[in-house]
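Dock calcium ion; give full complex structure.
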Amino acid sequence: MDNEKKKILIVEDEKNIAQMLAFNLSQAGYDFDIAYEGEEGLKKALDEDFDLILLDIMLPKLDGFEVCRRIRVKKSTPIIIVTAREEEIDKILGLDLGADDYVTKPFSIKVLLARVKSNIRRASNELVNGTSGDNPEVIRIRDLMIDCERYQVTNRGEQIMLTKKEYELLLHLARNKGKVFSREQLLEEVWGYEGFYGDQSTVDVTISRLRSKLEIDSSRPEYLFTKRSMGYYIK
Ligand code: CA
């Protein structure tokens, strides 16, 4: 057998769903742990190392929004939010919690397992030195370096930890240096949302997070610029 089993944390208060997930994950070769409420889920997520977290939104004690947000402050473990209703997705996306993926209940277990697999794979590609792409690409903008093969960003020689969306947004702007993108364009091209589906403030929030990570002084950016009433660009 290669390596150890991947371990998944299930945070879900409905016992039958949690157990159904656990059963299917173990059938698929994963280890798992279950937390039946938010606080316990957060504690486990922070104290132990999981390869992925399946997170319900409506949870006792601490809801999934808050759990996700607090995990993200400390860790980049992939998080798939499992939400009960389609309309919650709008809210989730608008909040830009830093989750990696979303699945709506009722879900097909096949789809869920496929998402689990691809999110774990992507995360391990981001951590370990990347798989050998045929077209390794490094983008340099002064002290900023984006290594597309390793999904690594360094600024002034220091590695910067970005969420998936922060990374993708930065990469998109950097690949089109100088070009101004409207929020709408960015939502479509980076988030993949069609028109009304996304909340444009998602873009602003992600930009401001990127600035706080990249810029020495966020109010006087050296990389990420705002073109008044037009959008954003990298110079
Ligand atoms: Ca629930």
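Observed: Residues 109-127 form the longest helix (19 residues).
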